[in-house]
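Team,

Forwarding the record for the chain on the shared tracking sheet. I've put the sequence and predicted structure together so nobody has to dig through attachments.
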Amino acid sequence: MQEQIFLNMKVATHHLQTHEKNMKIFLLTFLIIASIVVISGCAKKTEMPAQYKADNENFKQSVIMLNKARDLSNPPESENQSSFKLSRETEEKLFSYTEKGIRLGKLVSDEYLDFINPELKDMFKNKLIKGTEINYDGLMIMKSNAYSSEGIQKQIQGSQFVIEWINWFSKNGRSFEDKIFED
């Protein structure tokens, strides 16, 4: 009987030692994984490749200028009005921001846009920039001939492209904004 107790104690001790070993391995593994997660979270983000720095700045400034123009063309006080008149000063700023935004957007390379996101080239160049150009052409027609159906059509078409850009960017922008706004 004493041998049986001794044998049971030996088996229990062995199980306890095995359990302790497994627990130490588990804790060590957990600490390693936790360290990797913490270190990778604290690690500096990948820097923008040198060949894309100018493109990155042009992209950001283009979007900023076009957003400023859009804000000027949709002042808060116009929200409940079917039509409104911009002051000459506001109109000049709107045209200036739009022209600058289009010009800067055209300078951005396709390679940079592909580097940021595979869909960005199409959406930026064919929706935002092209849509803004078409809208701007419509505005210029309307400026010289206030009731031109061609001008109105161009504004509608351009706005539809820009709205596609806005909707796409709202859904997808977060996935790559760190690449663009690294500083």
